[in-house]
Design goal:
The termini are far apart. The protein has a single domain (about 1-145), classed as Gcn5-related N-acetyltransferase (GNAT) (Aminopeptidase). By secondary structure, the chain is an alpha+beta fold. The longest helix has 15 residues, at about 80-95. The radius of gyration is 15 Å and the shape is globular. It is built from 4 helices and 7 strands. Helices cover about 30% and strands about 40% of the residues. The chain has helices at about 10-20, 30-35, 80-95, 110-115; strands at about 1-5, 40-45, 50-60, 65-70, 100-105, 120-130, 135-145. Strands 1-2-3-4-5-7-6 form a 7-stranded mixed sheet, sandwiched between helices. The structure holds coenzyme A (COA).
């Protein structure tokens, strides 16, 4: 298992994983435009040629907005998402971000447990944020203190 920068070569597998993981998956075009956006940083977990997980953040000034986190079902509970978030956290601090934040479905207990374990705290809720099914989003943020 290796953590690398996500590149265009990973797009077909990322599209497949999006479809497996989300009810409103991102398309190849959406992913390509993220990868070409200089304010976005995407990391991939790979096992040989297989993309097994990814995470992406968009930065605005010193703020980081995490867009997607996903791990292939057969590779879950092996610490891959935690490793991706930890590396992203290191890189976010290195470039001087003040915080990283994300939305998560309120029913997504595995993801909420993951984020809490890694230091994210609940800072708010967006009513009926999601569709398919309609559901509130919980907002979770990790704050970085400057040394
Ligand atoms: C959420 C997701 C990314 C977690 O990936 P993962 O690689 O399995 O997570 P990790 O193995 O790194 O888990 C780290 C910690 O998170 C928590 N966690 C992860 N999955 C969990 C589950 N199913 N139930 C309870 N806690 C869970 C645990 O605290 C775990 O530590 P532990 O295994 O030592 O108990 C994965 O389940 C996934 O891709 N889900 C579908 C997509 C999704 O919901 N993404 C998040 C959108 S906001």
């Amino acid at each position: 298992m290796e953590l690398v920068k996500l590149t265009e070569a990973h797009i077909p597998q990322m599209v497949e994983l999006e479809k497996i993981c989300f009810s409103m998956p991102w398309t190849a075009d959406m992913i390509r435009s993220e990868l070409n956006n200089p304010s976005c940083l995407y990391l991939a977990a790979v096992d040989g040629d297989t993309l097994v997980g990814y995470i992406g953040v968009q930065t605005v000034l010193d703020e980081g907005y995490i867009n997607n986190v996903a791990v292939r079902p057969e590779y879950r509970r092996r610490g891959i998402a935690a490793a991706l978030i930890s590396l992203l956290t290191e890189q976010a601090q290195a470039i001087g971000l003040a915080f990283m934040t994300l939305e998560v479905r309120e029913s997504n207990a595995p993801a909420i447990a993951l984020y809490e374990k890694l230091g994210f705290t609940t800072v708010g809720r967006r009513k009926n944020y999601y569709e398919k099914p309609r559901e509130d989003a919980i907002l979770m943020t990790i704050f970085f203190t400057k040394e």
